[in-house]
Amino acid sequence: MSLPFDGAISRFLAEDAPHHVRAALDGAGTKEIVTPGYPYDRWMAKADYECELSALQLELVKLQHWVRRSGTRLVILFEGRDTAGKGGAISRFTLNLNPRVARIEALDKPSEDEARQWFFQRYIERLPQAGRMALFDRSWYNRGVLEPVFGFCTEAERARFFVQLPAVEQMLIDEGMHLVKLWLEIGQAEQLRRMLARERDPLKQWKLSAIDVEGLHKWHAYSAAITDTLARSDFGFAPWTVILADDKHRARLAVIRKVLSSVAYHGRDDALVGVPDPAICGGPELRLG
Ligand code: ADP
Ligand code: MLT
């Protein structure tokens, strides 16, 4: 099978990766955390993770039941750098849920018609009706981070986005929607390690896009756009939750706990749900490096 980006990731590692990134990956074990400053050295053990995950799955089913019964509209934004694990977190979240109740919205690049609409329009159209939840795999925050980094929007368009953003999110809240904004953060060496794994694995190659490959060269531009975006959109009525996601296991549990603990659904087992691990979950101040 021919690969769309034959060897591009390995080539980046060999030729362009910063020295500290290469050094971090050199000889690192697969479950070892390679990001400096990460609060854990190793991934959470799989057996512990699976045990906690299956207990939380039952809580998610209760949440789904309550969302339907109460006519709640729940919106969860999954944001983060390429390979941070948005897709993986969403699939664990929705594993036992009804796809009609918990819809995944992963919008492609805007079509010609969509590009002629108000920027927020196609997202607004996909907001959930009463009794439903929508999980956005990337969101309107593309205009804060990804679009300017790749030149897909103008400075003026980005500025207009930030002017309109607080009013748009405030309207969702005023409409009674529950809005949870999750930012999954990973370190540069971990990102490269995940892309190398995708390059090697025929089951994962589809996850690599031109954006991912080009994005490797744009780490610092991303960092600046992320810092700016989180600072300008961490509203009291719609705050960000940042999750340090180098450890996928802990990150997925934190994602689920964050959502469960922020919705007061009927029958919640508070002792089980607890709070997301504060070592890897906080506000925009939590980001490493
Ligand atoms: P993934 O979400 O799986 O990482 P991609 O890396 O292919 O998907 O794309 C990343 C994001 O960039 C997607 O949300 C996509 O809609 C957006 N995107 C890609 N091309 C454009 C473009 N020309 N204009 C605006 N957004 C784009
Ligand atoms: C992720 O892993 O964060 C998402 O699936 C998006 C990507 O392909 O990077």
Mean pLDDT, to the nearest integer, reads 95
| Associated small molecules | adenosine-5'-diphosphate, D-malate
Main sheet: which strands, in order across?
2-3-1-4-5-6
- Tell me about the biggest sheet? 6 strands, mixed
Helix content: 40-55%
Structure write-up:
By secondary structure, the protein is of the alpha/beta class. It is built from 13 helices and 6 strands. It is globular and about 55 Å long. It starts with 7 loop residues before the first helix and ends in a 7-residue tail after the last strand. The structure holds adenosine-5'-diphosphate (ADP) and D-malate (MLT). D-malate binds next to helix 4.
Quick overview of this protein structure:
This protein is an alpha/beta fold and 289 residues long. The chain contains 13 helices and 6 strands.
Question: What are the main properties of this structure?
Answer:
single chain, 289 residues, alpha/beta, 6-stranded mixed β-sheet, globular, binds D-malate
Write the layout of secondary structure elements.
Elements lengths: L7 H9 L2 H7 L20 H25 L2 E8 L5 H9 L7 E4 L6 H4 L5 H4 L7 E6 L8 H5 L4 H20 L3 E8 L2 H13 L9 H6 L3 H15 L6 E5 L3 H15 L7 H4 L7 E2 L7
Parallel strand pairs: 1-3, 1-4, 2-3, 4-5
Antiparallel strand pairs: 5-6
Helix pairs in contact: 1-9, 2-9, 3-12, 4-12
The structure holds adenosine-5'-diphosphate (ADP) and D-malate.
